[in-house]
């Protein structure tokens, strides 16, 4: 057992590629947690690790997990690249740390780079976040500089956890994963009381009860222990079958001496972005279902249900926490399970109210109630924060305005960098907003957004008809003012993507019965007049009439195969060009 006054729980907050993993590796080496011969790059991929004289916890990808991770700590290292400065994602996580009253220690990493400007970055941190950087630590994780100073500052400034060993057990779950042999492995921070191997525990929010078969700490490999006390971080295994039984944010207590109330802040992860996943080969449908079930063992936030499409056959409607989550799942399905998938464009969750006052959750355009029964539609809004060099401010403001953004604030962080804040519909963010932002800023702008709630808007269902047939996966819910421009750009893009047939193929974008945009793919025509070497004109007309009748019959019976690229066309349309054409 380690006395509570000798424990330090801290996190590392940093933007992507600012050096947090390399720094964590150096902390492992400096504290002799890992021998040099066992060391490998970015070893600290696990969410927590116990050092001989402290416990450190690395970053998490999703906002709820970040919040839970910070709640398990008393302090954090704010790692900022000395050549790049503060980024948007860093700001968002620092604000979370401030809300949790954590002691924040600024660390300026990569000071060995030729472009490093520590004094400028110090001023930026002070002006943007309000932290005193007079004692900021200069470090280079790659060179091993400043590591001892960081450890000394952690011991000196991060407060030890409260000595709550005499209270009923309460432990906060901040991560969990599925192990083929042990079942679900739960990682937690003991807030109150004591936990021993063999105890019968209860998860207070899900109500599940289990006997602990293994208890230990990660250092960084699993090391079994007999007990863990208030202030310590560890893991437990109890033959738990599903990750959903031990959700992040839940509270672990003892069955025989339960705590009076659970730790605050528990909420179930709610998917905010949906898309359809269909196998290109219908025979792979069972394999796709098995793959999704296996991924769900490790990822309780992944939701899916069967879906049938007239255009693509059998597949699944999947829900994700965000775009990054969606991309990771899709990549894993294709790489780890060797599946060839058709993915529809991502959509968000709308709320529709019918004339009888009933509220419907709409995660797919095809689930929208009929127009004659529809009273209103609400869509999710986010607070978007963009940090950019000042020369791109005008272009980025123009982009935000085009995507129905509402200006909130603009501040100059330094002489060269600006932060912009907008309220923006989430539907505009999950399409191609990030790509457009990077294009307009030449890759220098960074963004972060957080959901703020739902707002009623004048939204309509934009249907796409190909050869007279409705193609549900291509339908979209858009603002009425943008419906014409989106529809025009979409049918134009589909005309380029869908191959020509033996008959003319009309493509239409419609709101209800009213067509707002239309294009047509011309037929591939055989030259039936090639065998006519002169002669009466009636002979030629007869041949052309016969061909036209065949084309008409073919159009009524023919089926248009829509390629994979067409289902992502909504992400590829050039809205700027569509607007300028008018």
UniProtKB/TrEMBL annotation:
InterPro entries named among the record's database cross-references: EF-4, EFG_III/V, EFG_V-like, EFTu-like_2, LepA_C_sf, LepA_CTD, LepA_IV, P-loop_NTPase
Catalytic activity, as annotated: GTP + H2O = GDP + phosphate + H(+)
CDD domains referenced in this protein's UniProt entry, alphabetically: EF4_II (cd03699), EF4_III (cd16260), lepA_C (cd03709)
SUPFAM superfamilies hit by this protein: EF-G C-terminal domain-like, P-loop containing nucleoside triphosphate hydrolases, Translation proteins
Signal peptide: none
GO terms assigned for molecular function: GTP binding; GTPase activity; ribosome binding
Keywords for the protein's UniProt record, in alphabetical order: GTP-binding, Hydrolase, Membrane, Mitochondrion, Mitochondrion inner membrane, Nucleotide-binding, Protein biosynthesis
EC class name: hydrolase
Transmembrane feature ranges: none
Cell compartment(s), UniProt: Mitochondrion inner membrane
UniProt similarity note: Belongs to the TRAFAC class translation factor GTPase superfamily. Classic translation factor GTPase family. LepA subfamily.
Protein name (Swiss-Prot/TrEMBL): Translation factor GUF1 homolog, mitochondrial
Organism: Chlorella variabilis
């Amino acid at each position: 057992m380690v006395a509570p006054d000798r424990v330090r729980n801290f996190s590392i907050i940093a933007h992507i590629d600012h050096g947090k993993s390399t720094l964590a590796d150096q902390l492992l080496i400096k504290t002799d947690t890992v021998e040099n011969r066992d060391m490998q790059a970015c070893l600290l991929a696990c969410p927590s690790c116990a050092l001989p004289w402290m416990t450190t916890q690395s970053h998490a990808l999703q906002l709820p997990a970040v919040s839970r991770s910070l709640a398990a700590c008393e302090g954090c290292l704010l790692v900022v690249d000395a050549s790049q400065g503060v980024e948007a994602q860093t700001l968002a996580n620092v604000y979370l740390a401030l809300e949790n009253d954590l002691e924040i220690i600024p660390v300026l990493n990569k000071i060995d780079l030729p472009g490093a400007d520590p004094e400028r970055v110090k001023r930026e941190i002070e002006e943007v976040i309000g932290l005193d950087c007079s004692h900021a630590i200069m470090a280079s994780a790659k060179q091993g500089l400043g590591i001892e100073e960081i450890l000394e500052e952690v011991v000196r400034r991060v407060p030890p956890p409260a000595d709550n060993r005499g209270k009923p057990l309460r432990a906060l779950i901040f991560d969990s994963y599925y192990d083929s042999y042990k079942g679900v492995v739960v990682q937690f921070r003991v807030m109150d009381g004591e936990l021993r191997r063999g105890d019968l525990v209860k998860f207070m929010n899900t109500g599940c009860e289990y006997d602990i078969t293994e208890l230990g700490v990660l250092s960084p490999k699993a090391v079994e222990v007999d007990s863990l006390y208030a202030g310590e971080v560890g893991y437990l295994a109890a033959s738990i079958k599903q990750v959903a039984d031990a959700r992040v944010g839940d509270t672990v207590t003892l069955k025989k001496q339960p705590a009076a109330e659970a730790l605050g802040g528990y909420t179930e992860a709610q998917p905010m972005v949906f898309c359809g996943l269909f196998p290109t080969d219908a025979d792979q449908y069972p394999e796709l279902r098995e793959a999704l079930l296996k991924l769900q063992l490790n990822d309780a936030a992944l939701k899916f249900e069967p879906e049938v499409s007239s255009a693509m056959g059998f597949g699944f409607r999947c829900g994700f926490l965000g775009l990054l989550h969606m991309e990771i799942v899709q990549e894993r399905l294709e790489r780890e399970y060797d599946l060839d998938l058709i993915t529809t464009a991502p959509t968000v969750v709308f709320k529709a109210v019918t004339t009888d006052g009933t509220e419907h959750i709409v995660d797919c355009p095809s689930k929208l109630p009929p127009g004659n029964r529809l009273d209103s539609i609400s869509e999710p809004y986010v607070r978007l924060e963009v940090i950019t060099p000042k020369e791109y401010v005008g272009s980025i403001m123009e982009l935000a305005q085009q995507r129905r953004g509402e200006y909130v604030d603009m501040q100059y962080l330094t002489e060269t960098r600006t932060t912009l804040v907008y309220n923006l519909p989430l539907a505009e963010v999950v399409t191609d907003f990030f790509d457009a932002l990077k294009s307009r800023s030449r890759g220098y702008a960074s963004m972060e957004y957080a959901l703020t709630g739902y707002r009623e808007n004048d939204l309509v269902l934009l249907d796409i008809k190909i050869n007279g047939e409705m193609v549900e996966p291509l339908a979209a819910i858009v603002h009425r003012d943008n419906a014409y421009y989106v529809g025009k750009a979409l049918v134009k893009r589909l005309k380029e993507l869908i191959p020509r047939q033996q008959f003319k193929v009309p493509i239409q974008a419609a709101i209800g019965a009213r067509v707002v945009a239309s294009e047509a793919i011309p037929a591939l025509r055989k030259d039936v007049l090639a065998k006519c070497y002169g002669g009466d004109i009636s002979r030629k007309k007869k041949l052309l009439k016969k061909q036209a009748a065949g084309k008409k019959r073919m159009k009524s019976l023919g089926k248009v195969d829509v390629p994979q690229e067409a289902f992502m066309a909504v992400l590829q349309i050039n809205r700027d060009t569509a607007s300028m054409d008018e």
